[in-house]
UniProtKB/TrEMBL annotation:
<feature type="domain" description="Magnesium-protoporphyrin IX methyltransferase C-terminal">
    <location>
        <begin position="224"/>
        <end position="320"/>
    </location>
</feature>
<dbReference type="GO" id="GO:0008168">
    <property type="term" value="F:methyltransferase activity"/>
</dbReference>
<keyword id="KW-0808">Transferase</keyword>
<dbReference type="Pfam" id="PF07109">
    <property type="entry name" value="Mg-por_mtran_C"/>
</dbReference>
<dbReference type="GO" id="GO:0032259">
    <property type="term" value="P:methylation"/>
</dbReference>
<dbReference type="InterPro" id="IPR010940">
    <property type="entry name" value="Mg_prot_MeTrfase_C"/>
</dbReference>
<dbReference type="InterPro" id="IPR010251">
    <property type="entry name" value="Mg_prot_MeTrfase"/>
</dbReference>
<dbReference type="InterPro" id="IPR029063">
    <property type="entry name" value="SAM-dependent_MTases_sf"/>
</dbReference>
<protein>
    <submittedName>
        <fullName>Magnesium protoporphyrin IX methyltransferase</fullName>
    </submittedName>
</protein>
<keyword id="KW-0489">Methyltransferase</keyword>
């Protein structure tokens, strides 16, 4: 499948506080894109965005009918129902999801198989661009041999494995035991390549099942990609502070940006939930993330925005102020 280059061109990193602008190209007959995980269910299960017929039906309905749809699609109501089912809050919902249906879905998205729909393939491209940009941030500073890196929320190892290939000493964790097992499997396959021993200079990543709050130790660099989308800002502040306490020199975060445009798209997406339950998606304003970093003595050195049609992520690199 071909993609227009403007949809997934490499992110422009900038040391100044101005984010690259996202230019929307008007294409007749093409519905607006929905951000990744934009619904309280999972946008990755969508085969195609909703069409003009669907919108026309909604547009022609009465105000009362629209209000009913909004009520049924209330993400907070669904989040509470999910939390009650698993006996906890956002963290328990995330853990349950990524150990079950979510694991199977996101393993395909983060993998290389053709068993994905158009939306999932687009999200795969977007996530891989974020990983590429992180690797560029790190390697631009010099060799990674012997550099300690904490990959918090490692998923299936899409960042941990490239880091290990560069000689970094990686400690990777995820709240999902299923994700950790898959990451370990992929790491052994890609790093050993059928041999009994690793190539000289390489060290197998250390994988563990853990939530962000329980992580400990000290690392040259701490990276946390596409995890904050599962938690509200009130919890994200504490997570950012804890991650910063683990980092000696650098903290890299990615998060779904909270702007009027993305918030509107997210709300529209919530009117069309997918067939399976997933986690609540939270957007974060860059200013809020920056304030959380400043409170613990860190400042943003580089920032940028990675976008595809269905994937939007702010990426920031912070250092000690």
């Amino acid at each position: 499948m071909a993609f227009t280059s403007s949809l997934f061109c490499p992110m422009q990193l900038s040391p100044n506080p101005i984010l690259p602008k996202l230019h929307r190209r008007k294409t007749p007959g093409v519905p607006a894109a929905i951000p990744p995980l934009s619904t309280a269910t999972d946008v990755s299960v969508v085969g195609n965005p909703f069409d003009s017929t669907t919108l026309a039906v909604i547009g022609g309905s009465s105000v009362a009918a629209l209000a009913a749809v909004l009520s049924l699609a209330d993400p907070e109501r669904r989040r509470q129902m999910q939390a009650e089912e698993v006996g906890g809050g956002d963290k328990e919902v995330v853990k349950e999801y990524f150990n079950n249906d979510g694991f199977q879905r996101w393993r395909r998205i983060y993998g290389e198989t053709d068993d994905v729909n158009k939306v999932q393939l687009d999200i795969r491209v977007g996530h891989s661009k974020t990983v590429e940009n992180v690797m560029k941030m790190l390697t631009d500073e010099g060799s990674l041999k012997g550099v300690t890196v904490c990959d918090a929320g490692c998923g299936t190892g899409s960042l941990s494995i490239p880091l290990a290939k560069e000689g970094a000493l990686v400690t990777a964790s995820d709240i999902s035991a299923a994700m950790v097992a898959e990451a370990e499997k992929k790491a052994r396959e890609e790093l050993l390549k059928g041999k009994d021993e690793l190539s000289p200079g390489l060290v197998m990543p250390k994988f563990e099942v853990s939530d962000l709050e329980s992580l400990s130790g000290k690392y040259d660099t701490v990276v946390c990609l596409d995890v904050l989308i599962h938690y509200p800002q009130s919890k994200a502040d504490a997570m950012i502070a804890h991650l910063a306490s683990l980092a000696e020199n650098r903290l890299i975060l990615s998060f779904a940006p909270k702007t009027f445009y993305y918030s509107l798209l997210k709300r529209i997406g919530e009117l069309f939930p997918g067939p399976s339950k997933a986690t609540r998606a939270y957007l974060h304003a860059e200013a809020d993330v920056e304030r959380a970093l400043q409170k613990v003595g860190w400042r943003i050195r580089k920032r940028g925005l990675t976008t595809t049609q269905f994937y939007f992520a702010n990426l920031v690199e912070a250092i000690r102020a």
